[in-house]
Amino acid sequence: QVSLVESGGGLVQAGDSLRLSCAASGRTVNTVKMGWFRQAPGKERDFVAAIMWNGGTTNYADSVKGRFTISRDDAKKTVYLQMDSLKPEDTAVYYCAAGRYWFGSTIGSHYESWGQGTQVTVSS
User: Fold this and answer.
1) What is the rounded CA–CA span in Å between residue 90 and residue 113?
2) Spatial separation of the C-alpha atoms in residues 38 and 21, rounded to whole Å
3) What are the phi and psi torsion angles at 110 (to 5°)?
4) Quick one: how far is CA 39 from the chain centroid?
5) How far, in Å, CA of 51 to CA of 34, rounded?
6) 24 FRET partner, CA 20 to 30 A, in 35, 37, 43, 56?
7) What is the distance between the alpha carbons of residues 102 and 97, in angstroms, rounded to a whole number?
8) Which helix (H) or strand (E) holds 119?
9) What is the rounded distance in angstroms from the CA atom of residue 7 to the CA atom of residue 55?
10) Residues 12-40: pLDDT tens digits?
């Protein structure tokens, strides 16, 4: 079992930046991918970004390409989401997730472990 804890959310103005962190603990040896998802009130959970642990291959949702960057720190077992040029439409609860399989990095149901989320609110 993998335990994930997100941090770094907050209330910011449009155009500001935030960096989210997701620290993994427990049995992480089988984790091959980590992802970030977000969910706004009354809406479905959406894919944001993912990174493959081996090699660091990344994927991004079209809505965040060029603004968000996902990265990892192997020694700290932590993944980050650097968010620049934030927009009000980015407002959501952001969740990190860990998965055991190489496929389905953009699909929430293909991840097995989830954090409890961190709130990001962007005002205009």
Assistant:
1) 23
2) 14
3) -95, 15
4) 11
5) 5
6) 43
7) 13
8) strand 118-123
9) 25
10) 999 999 999 999 999 888 999 999 999 99
